[in-house]
Specification:
Length: 278
């Protein structure tokens, strides 16, 4: 018998915003009513709360403490496919310092105050009281998960919980939320100096928003989905001068929200530009 919904209901009733996670430890993709932002949600899962549809959509923003939602028929279908429980740390008023390897754990022991600790597959989660912005890769093997992010529920942990220390505040303050694009897109001048046919704010915004949505709702093969999306964007806009650093940063943000590292993003972008001869 699947105990996940029972456990999730208990956590939700205790005030922890929960959501189902798939076997790859990621949220479920949007339902058909929310695809292509038809529900009015925003790309990158940057919405203020759960979508009004009854399905567990929009990544971390699906997390809820409402037992009627967690136990609904729509969520029951997701729980049957889920393999673990996720939660929104920021919504619970906590910050998770995700330490992904032994070196990261050693760093935390030397630089952070003791707090509630939960063992993970490869390292530890150190959980602090208080919410901050979420930033991946603040150090090698160290991610900060709090606002607009999710973490796996791995148990209550051990040890008393401390407040978010100054060291974590400094890390999220000085670390850019998005790694810079690997390089600028070099665009040859158009023959005859004609105006780029894509230089329409509406057209370009729709293209970038759809690309962000395609990445954020990928249900499997995230590496391949990111590469294919980068390739599609560059095919449409890489040679005409439309893309700016801000557009590329949005794509990298979407990919990193799905768990891609900056290195994988840079490699996918470079491979796509090479494939297109840009």
């Amino acid at each position: 018998m699947n105990s996940l919904p029972t456990t999730a209901l208990g956590l939700a009733e205790g005030g922890l915003p929960v959501l189902p996670l798939r076997a790859d430890k990621r949220p479920f993709g949007n339902c058909s009513a929310c695809e292509d932002l038809a529900c009015g949600g925003r790309p990158n899962m940057r919405v203020s709360g759960p979508c009004v549809c009854p399905w567990p959509c929009h990544g971390w923003a699906a997390a809820t403490t409402d037992p009627d939602v967690v136990g609904s028929p729509q969520w029951a279908a997701a729980w049957r496919r889920a393999r673990t429980i996720g939660y929104h740390p920021g919504g619970a008023g906590v910050t998770v310092v995700d330490l992904d390897n032994a070196d990261a754990v050693d760093w935390a022991r030397e630089n952070l105050p003791p707090t509630t600790t939960v063992a993970t597959t490869r390292g530890q989660h150190w959980i602090y009281r208080g919410a901050v912005r979420s930033v991946n890769g603040v150090r090698d093997g160290v991610d900060i998960k709090s606002a607009m992010s999710y973490a796996r529920w791995l148990g209550p942990g051990s040890g008393p919980m401390a407040d978010v220390p100054a060291a974590v505040h400094e890390l999220v303050k000085v670390k850019p939320a998005v790694r810079p694009a690997p390089r600028a897109v070099v665009v040859p001048a158009r023959a005859g100096g004609g105006r780029c046919p894509h230089r329409s704010p509406v057209y370009l915004e729709r293209g970038i928003a759809m690309a962000e949505q395609r990445i954020s709702t990928a249900t499997s093969g995230v590496h391949a989905a990111v590469y294919r999306t980068f390739l599609a964007v560059l095919s449409a806009h890489g040679r005409c001068g439309c893309l700016t650093a801000a557009h590329i940063d949005r794509l990298f943000t979407a990919a990193q929200a799905k768990g891609e590292s900056a290195r994988h993003c840079e490699a996918a972008w470079a491979n796509a530009t090479t494939a297109l001869g840009i």
